[in-house]
């Protein structure tokens, strides 16, 4: 971003005070960029630790990442640290996973996807004649889409229609055309076998969409998956949070935890922020809190960009049912990243987006970091969590959770051969009501706004408030969208907007 080009932003915000509301990845990222631009930056975090949904909890010798667990798009993280003339390796290490992930289909099939391209090609060919060559062609197209999309639409923010009247946009016409059809339609042009289609589309779960409602632009995620690789960061995602928070403090950012903001009040020449830790009076505010919460709860009605009806009409990304388990013994053959998929997953997506209900035959994800990291569980034990995407806003009672917990444990045993029920020594659930309470998330969504065609690019809420001068937004509701790498870039966009307006 031109406004934040390395070497050009130093001291451009000198004398300005900025409060960043929320210490998720978007908030920490914007704080780093703004501090590098010379601002006096304070991050105000509601909870006892920064990281937002990338929180951790520790108990009885187990350490759990509560949210993000797939380290994808390593190039985005490297670019972030490079901007500050820092080496990512000085903050946390990375280990490439092999296999990247394992898939258990509920008809008894089991597939490993590894860093070995020939192995993956052989898997595809085993399901469908010619699929290995189609896989190669798909990845060529995916890489091209990724490179064009990242440089012209992701790293470059285009918040207004006039920003799209640009030679870079016209040169990217094929990428634009991909926006006009669904991932389901696009993938079916390459692969007929439904299992191969699922493998090429599973990342949509992390983007908060379904194959039917997510634009084919996100074919670029296959390049991320198969070419860039899947990694495990030292210390889990908590290690990434700690590394970026350390970078922020080194740049002069003050981080206050247990400092929930109850109100954002506009005053002459700045703002008054009422927090549990006291009043803050910054010149500029960047909100990394849930966008709808900021507008509907922290601002007076006359300073909101959107009505309650606007938020009611949005397509939200799924919430999740999370089951954290400390287990005696090993959990082979589960891999670090494991997917358990019904051979027909349409019913699950329908129960998320069309007829909301707790899924009858869910597609779900199992994370077993103890397969890679022996510090996350006591000796002789395993650490894992199950994540089932579910519709936001469902009834979430202890009785429902207990029944669903039992059904998921039964499903794991039936479809992976791993019986956990009698070996559990630590257990915790986290679901819709927890997302709403801990993160102030709209209807308990785990991710924000889904990446539908009408909620992509400039159709997402803006970084600049149209109603309140000097109020900015970052995080998964804004561009470029959902996911840790995208939130890092969102923080850059928000900071760039601040520098353009005030630098």
TrEMBL record:
- Pathway annotation: Carotenoid biosynthesis
> What are the protein's UniProt keywords?
Carotenoid biosynthesis, Oxidoreductase
What lineage, starting at the top, does this entry show? Archaea, Methanobacteriati, Methanobacteriota, Stenosarchaea group, Halobacteria
Q: Name one Pfam family in it.
A: Amino_oxidase
PANTHER family with a match to the protein in the record: PHYTOENE DESATURASE (PTHR43734)
As given in the record, the signal peptide range reads none
| EC number(s) from the headed UniProt entry | 1.-.-.-
Q: Which InterPro entries match?
A: Amino_oxidase, Carotenoid/retinoid_OxRdtase, FAD/NAD-bd_sf
Organism the protein comes from: Halococcus dombrowskii
Identify a single GO molecular function assigned to this protein: oxidoreductase activity
Residue ranges of every copy of the Amine oxidase domain listed in the record: 26-498
Q: Name one GO biological process term.
A: carotenoid biosynthetic process
Q: What class of enzyme is it?
A: oxidoreductase
Under which name does UniProt file this protein? Answer: Phytoene desaturase family protein
């Amino acid at each position: 971003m031109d406004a934040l080009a390395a070497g050009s932003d130093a001291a451009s915000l000198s004398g300005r005070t900025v409060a960043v509301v929320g210490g998720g990845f978007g908030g920490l990222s914007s704080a780093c960029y703004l501090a590098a631009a010379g601002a006096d930056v304070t991050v105000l975090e509601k909870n006892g630790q920064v990281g937002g949904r990338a929180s951790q909890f520790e108990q009885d010798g187990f350490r759990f990442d509560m949210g993000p667990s797939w380290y994808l798009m390593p190039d985005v993280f490297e670019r972030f640290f490079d901007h500050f003339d820092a080496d990512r390796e000085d903050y946390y290490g990375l280990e490439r996973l092999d296999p990247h992930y394992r898939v258990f289909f509920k008809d008894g099939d089991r597939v490993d996807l590894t860093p070995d391209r020939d192995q993956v090609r052989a898997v595809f060919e085993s399901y469908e004649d010619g699929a290995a060559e189609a896989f190669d062609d798909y990845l060529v197209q995916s890489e091209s889409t990724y490179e064009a999309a990242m440089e012209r639409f992701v790293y470059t923010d285009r918040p207004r229609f006039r920003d799209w009247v640009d030679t870079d946009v016209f040169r990217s016409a094929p990428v634009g055309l991909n926006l006009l059809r669904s991932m389901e339609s696009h993938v079916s042009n390459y692969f007929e076998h439904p299992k191969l289609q699922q493998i090429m589309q599973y990342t949509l779960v992390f983007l908060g969409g379904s194959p039917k409602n997510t634009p084919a632009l996100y074919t670029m995620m296959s390049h991320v998956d198969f070419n860039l690789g899947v990694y495990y960061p030292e210390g889990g995602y908590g290690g990434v949070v700690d590394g970026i928070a350390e970078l922020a403090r080194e740049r002069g950012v003050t981080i206050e935890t247990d400092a929930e903001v109850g109100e954002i009040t506009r005053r002459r020449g700045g703002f008054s922020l009422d927090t549990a830790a006291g009043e803050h009076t910054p010149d500029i505010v960047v909100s990394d809190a849930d966008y709808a919460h900021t507008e509907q709860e922290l601002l007076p009605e006359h300073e909101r960009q959107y009505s309650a009806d606007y938020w009611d009409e949005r397509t939200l990304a799924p919430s999740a049912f999370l089951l954290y388990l400390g287990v005696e013994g090993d959990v082979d053959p589960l891999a670090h990243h494991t997917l358990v998929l019904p051979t027909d997953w349409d019913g699950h997506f329908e129960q998320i987006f069309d007829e909301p209900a707790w899924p009858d035959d869910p597609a779900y994800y199992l994370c077993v970091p103890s397969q890679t990291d022996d510090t996350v569980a006591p000796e002789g034990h395993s650490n894992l969590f199950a994540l089932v995407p579910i519709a936001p806003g469902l009834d979430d009672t202890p009785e429902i959770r207990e029944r669903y917990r039992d059904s998921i444990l039964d499903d794991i045993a039936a479809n992976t051969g791993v019986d956990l029920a009698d070996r559990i020594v630590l257990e915790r659930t986290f679901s819709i009501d927890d997302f709403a309470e801990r993160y102030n998330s709209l209807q308990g969504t785990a991710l924000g706004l889904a990446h539908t065609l009408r909620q992509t690019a400039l159709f997402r809420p803006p970084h600049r408030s149209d109603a309140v001068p000097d109020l900015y937004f970052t995080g998964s509701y804004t561009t470029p969208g959902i996911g840790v790498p995208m939130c890092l870039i969102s923080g850059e966009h928000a900071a760039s907007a601040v520098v353009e307006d005030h630098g």
